[in-house]
Amino acid sequence: MRILIDTNILIHFEDHKHVSEEFYRFYNHAIKNHCRILVHPSVFEDLSNDSNLERQKIITAKLEKYEKLENPAEPDQEFYNLYKPKNSNDKIDAKLIYQAVKGYIELLITEDTRILKTSKNLKIESRVKNIKEGLDFLIETFRFDIPAHPILSHGSVREIIERKNETFFDSLRQGYKKFDLWLDDCAKQDRLAYYLIIEEKLSALLIYKKETPFDHKIKDIYEDVLKICTFKVGETNFGNKIGELFLSKMFAYCIEAKINYLYLTVYPEHDRLIRLLELYGFVNSHSNGNGEFIMIREMKKPENTESSNENSSILHPYYSDNFRYSKFIVPIEEIYSESLFKDSRLREAKLFDKESINEIQGNTIQKAYICNSRVKLEKKDLIFFYISRTIKKASPIGIVDSYHRVSEMSELANLVTKRTVYPINDLQRQLEEKKTLTVILFRLITYMKTPLPYQELKSLNSCRNNLTTITRLTEEDYSKIKNKGFFDERYIIN
């Protein structure tokens, strides 16, 4: 991002005169996010007119450390007539504004009231801001939320390096003789990881890093990628769906970080992991020469398409919301939503969250919803879960994988084991009472950008009922809530 700074601010900054704390925060935030801090070259021409040669020399030297705006636009006479500069300083101000007018910069930062007023008159105030507004803009633009989950910890490899002698790492050492040196190197580089601790023992670990083309050298990919360096779930946790949980966090991380490729290397004998990766769109690119497959998942949001992969796990977590797919509001009680949707922002953290590993349905991408409704849903339809009675907001978004009407316990158990909040004995009782139950298998895609409140839902023609049963939304009603910004457009294939 190119940020042009009104030179008066920089001069005060360099002279250690009073500059608001916000500017220090703004400057640090800009540098941290690799923004280019620019000065207009005309400033140096103006400084050359300063009769105090010593001051001229000092200020010029201090400003030289900032990058000059190359090939700036020169205002035409019409623009000068509009701004009416009275002196050389005013003329420089006009040149600053003109760069925003032409789009040669993304942001102009100034505390000059005349510049700010002029930018509003020219309707370019989105690109001309004072320091506080600029800071807020950078914070919002570069906001990066590490995808989280209550049972997982996230942090530096340094946090688990002292555990490297635990038996958890034995199989990794067998596959890679220099593993200990590599893990130490990860700690030195302060690499990041998701990890799971159960009963004071490391039980699952995913180490990842961002790689440049120089690092990854993957054929035909000439941009940064995210590499999963280590992906291991301990044997005691097989069946707890931690692999699905890890993948869902990596997908969300790529979307947050705007990274278009995710990859890892896998030995052929890890067939269970390979099947999971292929289910979620990873492609076996080629062997790396060490006997490992390079599995790559393209994370770039697909263009509008009517392919058979639309709303399938291959493209997860992206989804199409066009008219071909019906939309439904699905009620769920808070006690069940807290177990099924553990990483929802509507859920409050619990004291023993880290110990809830056996609530497997909260770890999975694919989940099961069981009810007595006879409303028919089709594969690839969209469902929005409404937390009824207490919270009275909708937030989780799912895609239907399959719909079933079930009357046999064996079929019910086979469909929903490890994917539903209900224990088997509860399911048995429900089936005996109702004779037939509806099972909706769905994938949790993401959550609404802003939870959808009860009042908003009740304003829709589709939701004139009490929202205690599955309710179909018309396309018109869906468009209304979509246009109000409740959905995260990063996930939607338009």
- Report the strand count: 20
Tell me the overall shape.
globular
CATH superfamily of the largest domain: Hypothetical protein
Mean pLDDT: 91
Largest sheet: 7 strands, mixed
Count of DSSP H/I helices: 18
Which CATH first-tier class of the largest domain would you pick? Mainly Beta
CATH topology label of the largest domain: Archaeosine Trna-guanine Transglycosylase, Chain: A, domain 4
The CATH architecture classification of the largest domain is: Roll
Could you write a compact summary of the structure shown?
The protein is α/β, with parallel strands linked by helices and 494 residues long. 33% of the residues lie in helices and 24% in strands. The protein contains 18 helices and 20 strands.
Give structural notes.
The protein is α/β, with parallel strands linked by helices and 494 residues long. 33% of the residues lie in helices and 24% in strands. The chain has three domains: 140 residues, 3-Layer(aba) Sandwich (Rossmann fold); 146 residues, Aminopeptidase; 181 residues, Archaeosine Trna-guanine Transglycosylase, Chain: A, domain 4, CATH 2.30.130.30. It contains 18 helices and 20 strands. It has a seven-stranded mixed beta sheet. A six-stranded mixed beta sheet has the order 15-18-17-16-14-19. A five-stranded parallel beta sheet has the order 3-2-1-4-5. It is globular. The mean pLDDT is 91.
Descriptors:
single chain; 494 residues; alpha/beta; Rossmann fold; Aminopeptidase; seven-stranded mixed β-sheet; six-stranded mixed β-sheet; 18 helices; 24% strand; globular; N-acetyltransferase domain-containing protein; Acyl_CoA_acyltransferase; PIN-like_dom_sf
